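Obj: model holo form, ligand = beta-L-rhamnopyranose.
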Amino acid sequence: MTSFADIAPALERQAIELPSWAFGNSGTRFKVFGTPGTPRSPEEKIADAAKVHELTGLAPAVALHIPWDLVDDWAALRAYANGLGVELGTVNSNTFQDDEYKFGSLAHSDAAVRRKAIDHHLRCLEIMTATGSRDLKIWLADGTNYPGQDSLRARQDNLATSLQEIYAQLGDDQRLVLEYKFFEPAFYHTDVPDWGTSFAQVSALGPKAYTCLDTGHHAPGTNIEFIVMQLLRLGKLGSFDFNSRFYADDDLIVGAADPFQLFRILFEVINGGGLDVDSPVQFMLDQCHNVEDKIPGQIRSVLNVQEMTARALLVDRPALAAAQAAHDVLGANGVLMDAFYTDVRPALADWREGRGLPADPMKAYAESGHQEKLAAERVGGKQLSWSA
Ligand code: RM4
Ligand code: MN
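Output (holo structure tokens):
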């Protein structure tokens, strides 16, 4: 049996970046509802992320989205974040909101549009140098809606050339991670639809380029943990965007729709060394909180990841290996399920208390009056949304 003491060092290493946009208002294409206390500036988003870290000890960095989080003084923003106990993390580029990007960005057929998109990424790299961020995460809305609309092959070649130019400007300690998504906003084809395309593109770039796996970006029924295993095996799993979905790219709280899937993913992460000291895997959330409060939504999210990580670490690996070697199909499956059904919440509450953290961060937040304080303080100004 694996005990909780055995897994504590690995749990200690767990760090999950929070997306700044999770703290802004968000919604569907039908309506975005405002919430009292919503941030009105990048600083206020960072303060909210820092609160999540303060109560959980799990979220030491905040990912930025450019231009949503543009400020004049990056050194000042970095100092502000550090003062609150968090770092500035992954910089997410945005080439999907300007009119010029109607037919794509890095894969566009027109060199002038590609130039604009490449320059945006070069600007992101400059920002990263000022913020101390390691990763440039690229997600593209590029694709087409109708067969024949554009050349699939030419677009793939354009993408490769554009990425090369960005990659060439990476600093020694900087990385590029390329995210894939099988559909939306384009519906016939997406220029980076799947892990294989991302893998082919980043492999052609070099050792500082990796794939980003967003858990919501697969067709229903996809065996995501297999992809996790394969990318780790190939040394190209750079980061996760965690969230959960029932139907499409729902961006709901990670582990809410299918905790067992999250467990299976984390089991493969651990098997592949993704939680080791020198792991290249950056854990991040990519979520929106449309109807629930955002700070507790993020607290719940990081706790869900921690709970499923603990369960996946608890798998009795010698017993599993023995059952697998004996082709004991049900025995092997039983070893995995025993770990999955272990309630780790009391042990994690003790773990937190041992670190001076609240045993129950959700309760501590609710009882702190912080949400009410933010609602009273943050009056006037424009509440930010996930798209601004
Ligand atoms: C995209 C993708 C990106 C995220 C944006 C907001 O669907 O998942 O990672 O930055 O949404
Ligand atoms: Mn994502």
